[in-house]
Design goal:
With 143 residues, this protein is mostly helical. It has four helices and two strands, in the order H-H-H-H-E-E.
Length: 143
């Protein structure tokens, strides 16, 4: 569907009361089941849940105003949960990147340039740093 047609449909839908919009939704579902060449893409599980709640309310003959208010709240909840999920995924990706970089450090031996060209040198052994005890916590005045 092109953008102009999509915007035109939305403009027309915005002028109708919610009861009529649900009738249009039912008609679109009917047309989709009869004539759609492909199955529509399934929404994510949270949106599918919200649509199920909406369908249940409609089947229970709940007023369109109540359904609209309920769906508004559910839409906000779905947005929050989706945001939290994407933030968690981002954090997990960053952690995986850090773990990967720490687990596989690049091991290369330093080289020196001598009269005959580069010469590999072995790392010089270093003594471990002398460990100093941590400072006492504030308020601990024992001597």
């Amino acid at each position: 569907m092109n953008d102009i047609l999509r915007e035109r449909l939305i403009r027309k839908l915005d002028t109708l009361p919610e009861e009529k919009i649900y009738q249009i939704l039912d008609y679109i579902d009917f047309l989709e089941s009869k004539y759609a060449p492909k199955v529509s893409t399934a929404p994510n599980p949270l949106k599918r849940f919200a649509e199920g709640v909406e369908d249940t309310l409609r089947a229970g003959r709940v007023s369109a105003g109540v359904i609209g208010g309920t769906m508004s709240v559910m839409n906000k909840a779905v947005g929050v949960v989706t945001g939290v999920a994407s933030a968690g995924k981002s954090v997990a990706t960053e952690i995986a990147g850090v773990v990967t970089s720490v687990a596989s450090p690049k091991q290369s031996s330093p080289t020196q340039t001598g009269p005959a060209g580069p010469v590999a040198t072995s790392p010089s052994p270093t003594s471990p740093p002398a460990e100093t005890p941590p400072p006492p916590p504030p308020g601990d005045q024992r001597k």
